[in-house]
């Protein structure tokens, strides 16, 4: 029996045990434990902690060291809560859950974009509680698909995909996903893409993010420019009482143009929108990611 298979199976068994415990607890207690695990991970993962400190220090060079370290600690706490939130995605089921935990701002911008009948790009990033859109978008009557990378452990990956699709959305594999994205848009569905991760330089453009060059996928820009697809920035922030504030910003319509400079310019525009959203609460962004690479 291959070693990788045994490792995957063991990880999956432990993962199911964790889920059983989390779902047996009251939601508030489970999230509180998640916060504690997040702070513990700051201690157990020194390389991640160092990377977060370096990234935040470069982004905010004038920030006092004590404030910076406090923000990094709060970010780890946030990541721990986010991990538990994802395990509880399928516990949101009804309109009552929608009304109890979610508040929306600018929902009319999303409605207007759907009316163009060209599909909708939902622009977002690893900010706040980015996974909960898999629940609230279908519940709002907005058909949506979510682009996600596949995990190394296929058993855990399939479980997470079931969680993401429990509300009625669909998961699109990020690898070779352009054709699936275009098909979804042709069905007048929204396609949510997180545009704030490092992309292989050979298929990326380089734009500034917090004043530093970052390789970024141009896929939203290219498809939107070619097909006239509206782009609606959407960000979900967790409140102190573990509710969610969702902000939909006015839709963006990019002029048709195949010129590379236009692609870079428009990708920079979308990246700057994500940066502005991160600055509204920097402790809820994924600072442990190697976003800037040469």
The percentage of residues in β strands lies in 15-25%
The rounded distance between the terminal residues' Cα atoms is 39 Å
The side-by-side strand order for the widest beta sheet comes to 1-9-8-2-5-3-4
Gross morphology: globular
Report the mean per-residue pLDDT as an integer: 94
Task: List low-confidence stretches.
Answer: none
Largest sheet: 7 strands, mixed
**Which range best describes the helical content: under 10%, 10-25%, 25-40%, 40-55%, 55-70% or over 70%?**
40-55%
**Annotation field: number of helices:** 11
Radius of gyration: 19 Å
Domain count: 2
Q: Would you write up a description of this structure?
A:
This is Lauroyl/myristoyl acyltransferase. It comes from Desulfuromonas soudanensis. It is found in: Cell inner membrane. It is a single chain. This protein has 294 residues and is α/β, with parallel strands linked by helices. The protein folds into two domains: 87 residues, no CATH class; 194 residues, no CATH class. Helix content is 51%, strand content 16%. It contains eleven helices and nine strands. The strands form two sheets. Strands 1-9-8-2-5-3-4 form a seven-stranded mixed β-sheet, sandwiched between helices. Strands 6-7 form a two-stranded antiparallel sheet. The longest helix has 23 residues. The radius of gyration is 19 Å and the shape is globular. 33% of the residues are buried. The model has no long low-confidence stretch (mean pLDDT 94).
């Amino acid at each position: 029996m291959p070693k990788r298979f045994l490792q995957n199976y063991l990880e999956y068994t432990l993962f199911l045990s964790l889920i059983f415990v989390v779902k047996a607890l009251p939601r508030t207690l489970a999230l509180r434990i998640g916060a504690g695990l997040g702070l513990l991970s700051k201690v157990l993962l020194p390389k991640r902690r160092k990377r977060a400190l370096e990234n935040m220090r470069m982004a905010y060079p004038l920030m006092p060291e004590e404030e910076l370290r406090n923000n990094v600690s709060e970010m780890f706490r946030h990541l721990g809560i986010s991990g538990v939130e994802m395990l509880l995605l399928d516990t949101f089921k009804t309109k009552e859950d929608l009304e109890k935990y979610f508040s929306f701002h600018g929902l009319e911008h999303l409605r207007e974009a759907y009316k163009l009948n060209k599909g909708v790009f939902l622009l977002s990033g690893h900010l706040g509680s980015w996974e909960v859109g898999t629940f609230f978008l279908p519940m709002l009557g907005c058909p949506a698909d979510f682009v996600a990378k596949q995990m190394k452990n296929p058993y855990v990956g399939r479980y997470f995909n079931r969680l993401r699709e429990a509300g009625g959305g669909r998961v699109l594999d990020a690898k070779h996903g352009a054709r699936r994205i275009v098909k979804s848009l042709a069905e007048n569905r929204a396609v949510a893409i997180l545009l704030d991760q490092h992309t292989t330089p050979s298929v990326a453009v380089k734009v500034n993010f917090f004043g530093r060059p970052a390789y970024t996928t141009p896929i939203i820009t290219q498809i939107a420019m070619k097909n006239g697809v509206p782009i609606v920035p959407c960000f979900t922030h967790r409140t102190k009482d573990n509710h969610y504030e969702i902000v939909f910003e006015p839709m963006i319509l990019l002029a048709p143009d195949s010129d590379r400079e236009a692609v870079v310019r428009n990708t920079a525009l979308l990246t700057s929108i994500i940066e502005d959203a991160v600055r509204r609460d920097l402790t809820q962004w994924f600072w442990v990611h190697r976003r800037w690479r040469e």
